[in-house]
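Write out this protein's structure.
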Amino acid sequence: MPCRYKIYKLDYEDLTVSTPLSEASRRFMLELMNMLNRKVRISLTSGAEIEGTLLGFNDNLDIVLGDVTLPGNKKIPRMVIMRHIIGTISLTEERLELRELAKILEKYFPGMVRYVEEANIILVGDRIRVTEAGVEGAGPLAKRVKEIFDEFLRARR
């Protein structure tokens, strides 16, 4: 039987295609996608709170959490939470804003750097992508971008 759920992965290029989503809906999905693989706190409509890593969600906004901590500090590896019992979803870790890094990269690679604010990603040339998780790409350019990224992270500590 075919799966009827889509698991989203942040892909800026897919988001530039014309879609029936309104601008507000697109921004909502981008914000939720930026929470993927991050620690979140889910407040349920019952008042209970659950913490874990947001692993995925579908079109209905049902979510999948990993490394879940339930009330009473009980831990479980995976949990699917249906949308009708979700009150709020809160990010519990600081978000790394990449705007400053984009300015630094622009000094090293003039005219090659584009910061995409809605997705909080940096595109360097047409093959290198910088996200909060790190640098995606290969070759000498990616290696240099990774060195600058690592230095940026060290300087923030």
